[in-house]
Structure formats: structure tokens, C-alpha cells
Amino acid sequence: MNKIGIITLISFALTSICKAQNVEVYSFSSQIETKISNDTVFWNYQTYAIEFVNIGEYRRNLEIEDVLKKSKLDKIGNSKLPDTANVKYLKSFKAVNAKKKIIEEAKKHRIIIINEEHNSPINRVFINSLLPDLKKIGYSIYLSEGVSNSFTLNKGDSLLNERKYPILNSGFLLKEPQFGNLVRNALKNGYDVYGYDHPEDKTKTDFMERLQSRETGQAENIIKILDENPSAKFLIHCGRGHLTETLTDSGFGFMGAMLKEKTGIDPFTINQARLLETSTESTANPYRTEIDRNPPKKPSVFINEQNEYFDTYPDEKPWDVVVYFPTTNYKNGRPDWLFLNKKNKAFNIPKDKINIEAPYLIFAYHKDEDIENAIPADILEIGKDEEQKYLILEKGKYILFIKGENGKTQKIEIKV
User: Among 47, 137, 151, 140, which Cα is nearest to 99's?
Assistant: First the structure.
């Protein structure tokens, strides 16, 4: 954080022929707000939350997500989430460093399954921080629901492992810079990277059967890669509830349960989504509210004297461990958890070199990547009279592509 400054700047001329085709898939805040104001379908709000995340507007993302959560709570007639916090149960656990404990547990397993909430880049940054240590203990294959594949979708980024960086065709969710950085660093750390998602069978008329077809398909896609790599260790990155290991009373099983049932392998399952922060306490998980009364300062898991892990569903144990992330602190508009990646540095935006009137979007591309197709390493929106913001980047050379709301563009080369 103390290494802020411009080391090298080479400004390119303002020109209408600057090209970075993929910037067209990113929206300005004003454009997202317009879509929200014209939309009465609350389920679409998560899409808008993701759009805000994609341009670095994390706080606005939380606010939009809470609108959706509040609408759900109103429909069930409850001012809180359905869970209630068992305070006595919670107090029997103490916080321990999540990263250290996960690496310790990973040594005992062949498969780790870790989930994310799709509009929570902190989950992706945390997984990114685990990559080097997991590689040291034998993990070599990273599978992600977010990476496009060719199992059943008849599409995919077949050159990802050769190219060593993600592009727009690598997966819809990878448009978010921290997801792109996760995949990029997995490749740099020597992991083989594959997608495994599977579409629902739309021919099935029963809703639960359609859901099961996707979960079973995901598990079977993973098993194909397991069978091709019989001695490899796997890090599997999924969304939301797909990691769940337990079957329901009716026999329904998420991907984690189906993988466990079909292979006999007990994965170590890590839930990052249960205790995430919200913009208001009224939509927070009650356990989160209790933990926040005396919060740990670092990402943590909770363990008791019997070496059992805390879970928000203590009677069901659908996964092995739940991760808690401290409430976000901001410096110059950027979340502190971006520095969970120890290689990240804060970089001053060279406003004196920018010849475009705010608001504008800044896309930071690795100089050695195809910027017409690559996923940016960072994206920021700068509004009129806005506070100074930093780009958060690893050491290297970058091309900053600046796009004004008026359509004008500019390129600036920097060295961090």
C-alpha cells in the first residue's frame, strides 16, 4: 500500500482508432442504473450487481444485491434470513487463519471444492491467494464452473492452457477482472485449467429432475478429467451450493454429493458464500452479525476443542468448513482484500495524461496480451469530481485503455 506512484508513463495520442473490442461488454454505472430503473423483475438485480462488480464498483454491487435479498425476505414475511444464530454454539469455536488451516487440510485430500458467490470477487481473490501453496503440496489441476468447456456445450476456449491467459471466450463470469486474474495466475503457477459445467436437460418436465441433470452432468465431466489424471490433485471452483456433499431426503444431490457418491472420494469442501458481508445488517446472515460483534482481522474459519469446524448448518454438515471475511475497508475507493494477493500494488491513475472528460472507464491490460480479446487485470470507473482511485496491479507492463462516456478513447502505457 505504501508503494504508490507512477514509475513509468508513456502517453499515446488520443485517437478514434484505438481498438479494444472487448470493452463494449462493460457498462458505465449510469447505463446500469438506467437498466435498473426500467426493470421491475427483481431476479435481474443480481445481473446488475455483477455488472457493477465487473467495473470495480463493489459497494454499489452490495447495495443492489441487498435489494434482491430484501425482496426475498419480504416475500417470506421475515425481517431476517431463515437461519437464526445459535450464539451458545458459535461461542464454542475460536477463529483461526483460514488460509493456513485450508492448506493444512489440503494435505490430507486429493480434491478440494471451494465455492463462490458470483458477485463477490473477494472469493476469487482468496482462491487466487491459495494457488502457490496448494501447488507446493501437489495440486496441479484447477477446474472452474466459470471456465467455458467443450464437454456438452460445443464451445469453449480450447487454447486457454497454451495461451496462458483468459479471453472473453474463456467464460461469461471471467469478464470480472479478479476472476480473470485467478485463471491467469493458475496458469502461471503451472496448473492445467479446465471448465466442467453442464446444462440442464430441458427435455425433462420435472423441475428437480432438470436440476439433477446439471449436477450429475457436472460431476461426470469432472470424473472424466479425474480418470485422465489418476495421480493428480484437484482444486474445484464452483458457484454457490454446488459443493454440497450431502443428499437430500428425496435423494437429490448437488455436484459435490454426486462426485463423492460416484468416485468414493471424500472432498474437502469450503463454503465462502454463507458468511459474506452485506450493505445492511437486516439482510446479513445472523451468524455473520454475531461474529461482527468481535470480528477476526483476517479471513478465518472457526474450530472448537474437538477439532470440529463451525457450520451455519451444524446438524446437517453439508460442507466441511465455512470462511469468514472481515468487513471491507476502502482506501481511495478500493477494497482492502485486493491485497490478499501479496503481489498486488496500488498504482496512481495518471489523470494529468488523460485527455478524456470524466466519466470514463479505465481498462488495464497486460502489455504482452491481445488487448482486443484479453480480460483486463483491473477496471475502474472514474466519475466527475470523484476521489482519487488506485489501480491494483501486479508488477509488470500494462496498456491502459481509457473509454469516455462520450465514446472517445485513449491508450497509455505504464510500468508498475
Answer: 137
Site of grid cell 443492489: 64
Q: Is 142 exposed, middle or buried (0-12, 13-18, 19+ CB in 10 A)?
A: buried
Residue whose grid cell is 480473470: 180
- Asked, for residue 275, whether it belongs to a domain, the answer is yes
Q: What is the C-alpha separation between 263 and 222, in angstroms, rounded? A: 10
Q: What is the pLDDT of residues 194-247, one digit of tens each?
A: 999 999 999 999 999 999 999 999 999 999 999 999 999 999 999 999 999 999
| Domain contains 103 | yes
What's the domain range around 139?
Answer: 87-322
Whole-angstrom distance, CA of residue 252 vs CA of residue 24: 40
Residue 213 belongs to a domain: yes
Q: What is the pTM of this model?
A: 0.91
Cβ(409)–Cβ(16) under 8 Å?
Answer: yes
Amino acid present at 361: L
Q: Report in angstroms the alpha-carbon separations of 311 from 7, 181, 195, 248.
A: 46, 29, 28, 17
Burial of 233-257, coded b for 16+ CB within 10 Å and e otherwise, reads bbbbbbbbebbbbeeeeeeebbbbb
* CA dihedral (360, 366, 368, 370) positive or negative: negative
Q: What is the CATH number of the domain that holds 224?
A: 3.40.50
Report which of 378, 373, 374, 384 is spatially closest to residue 414, judged by C-alpha positions.
378
DSSP letters along 308-366, please? PBP-SSTTT--SSEE-B-PPP-EETTEEGGGGGSTT-EEEE--GGG--SPSSEEEEEEE
Half-sphere CA count of 268, side-chain side, radius 13 A: 17
Tally of CB atoms within 10 A around 139: 24
Q: Is the residue at 128 inside a domain?
A: yes
